[in-house]
Design a protein that fits this description.
With 627 residues, the protein is mostly beta strands. The protein contains five helices and 46 strands. The strands form ten sheets. The protein has an eight-stranded mixed beta sheet, with helices on one face. Mean pLDDT is 91; it is low at 1-12. GO terms for molecular function: isomerase activity.
C-alpha cells in the first residue's frame, strides 16, 4: 500500500512512490528500470490491461502529451492483467506491438505494483515528480488536459529547484516485423472474395476466396496503410485500427452509394466503402469520442465511441453498432443518415431484459442468426442475443456468462459453460452459433436447441472474427496475422471439462452496515467545478447482486454517498459511475473552456465484519485522508 509521509514543513501528506516490481520489461532493449533511474524526470505510470477499451483510449490520449513533453516526461505502462491470457508474456508483447505502445512497459502479472499503488480500476494514471513523490492520481480516461496542466506546473517548479533533468528517456523501439496482414480483426464474404480489416496496417484487404492472407492471396488494399481519417480513393483514404465490417443489402447499397460499413474503431467513426472502385466515405461520427450528452441525431453530428463491430439486422431496420467504448449498442440508418442508441445504459455489466435497460460489457462481435442478433460481450466473457419482443421493442438475453469476474474454458450445459474474452461470433449452417473464444484460443459452438456448449477447434492465435463461406468457417487468427479454416467438414465438436477462473484483482473489504463511498475529484490547475447551470457532479451506484446494498443505490449529485451494506451477502460488485464538470477559472473569459470527467468502476467487494467503513475512489487528484 502507499506510505503516507507527513513533512514538518508542509504538514500535509506526501506519498513516496513505491518501487516498480514485476516479471520483466518491454520496450527497453532488455534493460531493467528502477525509480532511481527515473530521478530527475516526471514519470507517468499508466496502469492498464490490454483487454480494456478504456485503457486503449488512454494510450491514444497520451500520445500528444508524450510528444509535447518528450524531454522531461517518461511514461511507464504497468500492465496488470485481468484475464489469464493477458498474463502470458508473448500475448503482452503482441498487444504492445498491436496498439503501438511507444514507451516502456512493466510486466506485472502478479499485480505487485498494482497493489503497492493501491490501484482500484483500469486504467489508472499516477504522476511521480522528479524527486520521487506521487503528486497526482487519475482513474479512467479523459484526463489529458488535466495531466498537461499538472506536468506544466511540475516542469516550472523543478526547473527552478534544479531537480529537473532534460533528455531522452529509456524507450527502445523493438524491430518492426513484416507480414502481409498485421493483427487482422474481422472478415466478411463478398461474392467472389473476402474482405478483411487489417487493423494494425490501418487498412482493408480484399483476398481471394480461398486465401489465407499471405502475399499471394491479396487482390487489393483499401487504405494508405498509415493511421488517419482521410476519405477518398483506395490509396488516399486512411483508417485507424479498423475492425468490424457489414455488407449492406443490395437495395440499400444502391440508394446510399456504398456497399460496406466499416467500424473505424480508434477514429470513432463509421466509414462506407464502394466496392466498385474502393472509394471510402465517412458516414457516421464526428471523430470525437462520445463522453456524455446527445447520442442520437444526424449521423455525422453524433459522437461515437470505439465502434468495434457492425451488422445489418433487418428487425432493427439498420446497422447495429457494437459501441465498445461505452458498453452500448447503437443503430445506424444509412438511408436516413441517422444514428441513435439502440440498447444499453452505459453501465458496464451483465443485465438482461428490455434493450434500453440492459447492461453490456464491451460488446466486440455481432452476427445475425435467424431473427436473433447474437453478440460477444468480451468483458463478461458472455454470449448473448437480442430479439424482438412480443410487446414491441427488443429484449436482451444471455446464453453463456455470469459477470465481469468469471471466465474459463469449460463446455457442457450453457449455465455452467465458460468463455474467456470472446471477440467474435458467426452463424453455422445448422443454425447454431460459432464463438471466437479469443483468450482461450478456440472456436466454440453454442446450440440454441439443446443449450449446450462445445469446442470446435483450439490452438488458434487470438481468433477475433469469423464468417461462413460455402459451408466452411473462415476464422481470423489475429495474433497469427492470417486467416484459418480450422473446422474441416465432418469434424465433430468435442467437450472440454476445463476449470473455472476468476479475475485475480484484489477485492475491497467493506464492513456490513453503514459505509461512506467517496469519489475524490480535484479540478486540474486553473479550473474550478462548473456550477453555472446547476450541480457539476453526478454519482450513480448500482450493485450485483442487487441485495448487496440495503440502501444507497441510485443517482444523486454529490460525490459522497451513505451506503448500507447487507450483512447477509458475502461478496458482490459495486458499479459506480461518477462525472464532474469543470471550467477554466478566469472571470475575464466570457466563454471558458469546460470539460467533463467521467469514470466507471466495477469494484469487487468482500463483506467482512472487520472491514473498513469508507471506500474512496480517486477520479482525479489525491486523497489525503490516509487511505
Amino acid at each position: 500500500m502507499l506510505a503516507w509521509v507527513v513533512t514538518a514543513s508542509t504538514r500535509r501528506a506526501r506519498v513516496r512512490a513505491p518501487e516498480l516490481v514485476g516479471r520483466g520489461w518491454l520496450n527497453t532493449g532488455g534493460e531493467q528500470i528502477t525509480l532511481a533511474d527515473l530521478r530527475g524526470k516526471i514519470t507517468l505510470l499508466d496502469f492498464w490491461t490490454f483487454c480494456c477499451i478504456n485503457c486503449l483510449h488512454v494510450l491514444d490520449e497520451l500520445r500528444p502529451l508524450e510528444a509535447e513533453f518528450a524531454d522531461v516526461l517518461v511514461t511507464i505502462g504497468v500492465h496488470s492483467p485481468k484475464f489469464a491470457h493477458e498474463a502470458d508474456p508473448d500475448a503482452l508483447a503482441a498487444a504492445v506491438e498491436r496498439y503501438e505502445v511507444h514507451h516502456p512497459v512493466l510486466d506485472d502479472p502478479e499485480l505487485v505494483t498494482w497493489q503497492a499503488y493501491a490501484v482500484k480500476a483500469w486504467p489508472t494514471l499516477v504522476l511521480v515528480d522528479p524527486e520521487g513523490y506521487v503528486v497526482h492520481v487519475a482513474a479512467g480516461e479523459g484526463h489529458a488536459e488535466a495531466l498537461r496542466r499538472v506536468i506544466t506546473e511540475l516542469v516550472a517548479e523543478h526547473e527552478a529547484k534544479g531537480t529537473l533533468h532534460r533528455g531522452d528517456g529509456p524507450y527502445v523501439p523493438p524491430p518492426a516485423p513484416e507480414t502481409a496482414l498485421r493483427f487482422p480483426a474481422k472478415v466478411v464474404a463478398l461474392p467472389d472474395s473476402l474482405l478483411v480489416s487489417d487493423s494494425a496496417h490501418h487498412s482493408l484487404v480484399e483476398l481471394r476466396g480461398d486465401g489465407d492472407g499471405g502475399e499471394g492471396s491479396l487482390l487489393r488494399r483499401i487504405g494508405s496503410g498509415t493511421r488517419g481519417r482521410a476519405d477518398g480513393a483506395p490509396d488516399e483514404a486512411s483508417f485507424s485500427e479498423p475492425s468490424g465490417l457489414a455488407v449492406l443489402p443490395p437495395e440499400v447499397a444502391a440508394r446510399v452509394g456504398y456497399d460496406v460499413v466499416v467500424a473505424d474503431t480508434v477514429n470513432h467513426l463509421l466509414r462506407g466503402v464502394r466496392l466498385a472502385d474502393g472509394h471510402v466515405t465517412t458516414v457516421a461520427g464526428t471523430g470525437q469520442q462520445w463522453r456524455d450528452g446527445e447520442d442520437a441525431g444526424p449521423a455525422l453530428a453524433v459522437d461515437l465511441t470505439s465502434p468495434w463491430d457492425v451488422a445489418w439486422w433487418e428487425p432493427a431496420g439498420g446497422v447495429v453498432v457494437a459501441m465498445a467504448g461505452n458498453h452500448t449498442l447503437g443503430l445506424f440508418d444509412p438511408v436516413a443518415g441517422t444514428v441513435r442508441r439502440f440498447a444499453g445504459t452505459t453501465v458496464e455489466g451483465l443485465r438482461d431484459g428490455a434493450a434500453e435497460e440492459a447492461f453490456f460489457a464491451q460488446t466486440s462481435g455481432l452476427a445475425v442468426v435467424g431473427d436473433r442478433l447474437w453478440l460477444a460481450d468480451s468483458e463478461t466473457s458472455a454470449l448473448r442475443w437480442v430479439e424482438p419482443s412480443a410487446e414491441g421493442g427488443f429484449t436482451v438475453r444471455t446464453a453463456v456468462g455470469t459477470g465481469l469476474f468469471d471466465f474459463g474454458h469449460r463446455d457442457g450445459p450453457a449455465d455452467q459453460a465458460l468463455l474467456q474474452h470472446p471477440l467474435g461470433v458467426a452463424a453455422l449452417p445448422d443454425g447454431s452459433v460459432a464463438v471466437c473464444d479469443t483468450y482461450n484460443g478456440a472456436v466454440r459452438r453454442y446450440d440454441p436447441e439443446t443449450r449446450e456448449v462445445s469446442t470446435l477447434a483450439g490452438d488458434l492465435a487470438e481468433p477475433s472474427g469469423a464468417v461462413l463461406v460455402d459451408g466452411e468457417l473462415v476464422v481470423v487468427a489475429s495474433a497469427a496475422h492470417r486467416l484459418e479454416r480450422p473446422v474441416p467438414p465432418g469434424v465433430t465438436a468435442r467437450l472440454v471439462a476445463g476449470a473455472a477462473h476468476q479475475v485475480r484483482r484484489p477485492s475491497s473489504d467493506l464492513a456490513p452496515g453503514e459505509v461512506e463511498l467517496a469519489v475524490v475529484f480535484t479540478p486540474p490547475p486553473g479550473q474550478k467545478l462548473d456550477e453555472r447551470y446547476g450541480p457539476s457532479t453526478r454519482l450513480e451506484v448500482t450493485c450485483s447482486p442487487p441485495e448487496l446494498l440495503v440502501e444507497g443505490a441510485g443517482v444523486d449529485t454529490a460525490l459522497t454517498r451513505r451506503l448500507v451494506v447487507s450483512d447477509t451477502v458475502a461478496e458482490g460488485v459495486l458499479h459506480v459511475v461518477a462525472q464532474a464538470a469543470s471550467c477554466d477559472d478566469d472571470p475575464a473569459v466570457e466563454h471558458p473552456v469546460c470539460r467533463l470527467t467521467r469514470q466507471d468502476w466495477g469494484v469487487p467487494v468482500r463483506v467482512v465484519s472487520s472491514g473498513p467503513r469508507r471506500l474512496a475512489l480517486v477520479m482525479g487528484g489525491l486523497d489525503d485522508s490516509g487511505l
